[in-house]
Amino acid sequence: MSNSGNELLRQALAKYASSGMTAKTEDNELSVEGSTSGGNQSRSRRQSPASSRQPSRVASRAVSRNQSRIQSRSNSKDKEEKDDGLDEDELVQAADKLSVHEGAEPDVGGDHMGQFSSEQLSSALSALLDKVSEKRTTEEGLQGICSIMAHKYIGEFELRNRESYLDAFKRSLRNYKSLKEGLLASRGIALWFLQFGENDDSAYSDIYPFLKKVISDTNTSSITAQIIHTLAFANFIACEDYRDSVDIIDLCSKQLSDWKSAELTLMALNSYGLMMTVLGGSNIDLAKQIFERDYNYHYELLDCDDVDVRIASSENIALMYELSTEENDDSTNQEDDNENFNYNVAGLDFLDHDELLDKLDDMSKDSTKKHSKKDKQHQKQALRLVVASIESNINPSFKMNFRNIIVRFSTWTKITRLNAFKLTCSNGLYMQFVENPIMPLVFGSSIDSIVGNNLNGLRNGKAEERVVVDSKSEMAKYRSKSLNKLRSNKNMVPDDDF
């Protein structure tokens, strides 16, 4: 990395520090349950009466804090004096935690788009590729590359290095030494197709047998789950022949029939649905035939202990109803979208329509004691859309808030595809909507308001870049606690003698 590149990246990382939602957090959301122990510990400290019983400790801590602050300022000055000598290793350690800072104003001159220039990102990515090639820093390099690829569109200015990235991901996945390395490498391949793989059948033909072999060689369900998603996502981005989707559907079907874990089953359901949006849009008769084979798996999974599996299964069924009627609805005016009429279920006559509706309706009113309150609320909200869609052909309405812009997705096809992109990009989804030319091709007019708003912001010199915070993330929990605290403070009645 050149000295000028070092300086640019150093300044960028100093100004746009991590907001807490790094790739590491996103990766954990894919494979393991998040920990909330930090929040509980804070609560227990606030509830402790020790401070009221021992005021001397409070004074002692105050003195200690003052001394600590003085020392911290002194250290900070020393660090600033040494910044000019910041070496490449320190830069890349910061780069591997790279994330987009909320509310910061970007430099929109030249080839700048968002918070970082092409030169800054290229310098960071080059150094991170070097880290991937070293055994002791492979995970750090993979995590940094995945974070940048998720949050930024680099497909144009990094086109010359496209093969280097794919080779690095394949090498790491072939010889991964830890679960994290395997997950990052597999996710990196999905992100590679998002950046470079549009309509690239040859790249997919190369990666398909490689990923199939990794699945056959691994006994880890988390790795298998991530690879299935990567295969489906790569197929969706790169393949022009819908018949390739049948291979992925068959792979997912095997996972549905042979339970290994909730995570793997959920990923198989999501990937199955994504591939059905491809197959059903091109050959609905073949799609119906395959779904008839797999319908019983979906119906049985409606009773799964995992709420996300139950919901995903029901949404796949709703998707198939939608695809089965689209060919008959082409002549219908948009103004009739909300009118209630019965589905023409020709081709889905293998299922008991009334039995299915009764089942889904019961799920939308879940009162089972074995399910948690949170799970029941989540299921009710999702199943109401499914029931309305299947019973009355009322379009689903899924809303997302991007920078105070409400974006609606009103078909199961778009919602299914949105879920796949959310899983791949996580908190970088917003910037992919803004920058990546694939997104308008996939989502059409649904995201026009996002792109238009960003262009207006750039013209006015006031564009902002914000990470879309997942509702289950630690940052979202922190915000919720802060808002609750503010509300409680507003409701406090002041003492009369104050």
From TrEMBL:
Biased composition regions of type Low complexity, renumbered to the chain: 34-74
A Pfam match: IFRD
Positions in coiled-coil regions: none
Name used for this protein in its record: Interferon-related developmental regulator 1
Family: Belongs to the IFRD family.
Residue intervals of the Interferon-related developmental regulator N-terminal domain: 110-391
Stretch list, region Disordered: 20-87
Superkingdom of origin: Eukaryota
InterPro entries, alphabetized: ARM-type_fold, IFRD, Interferon-rel_develop_reg_N
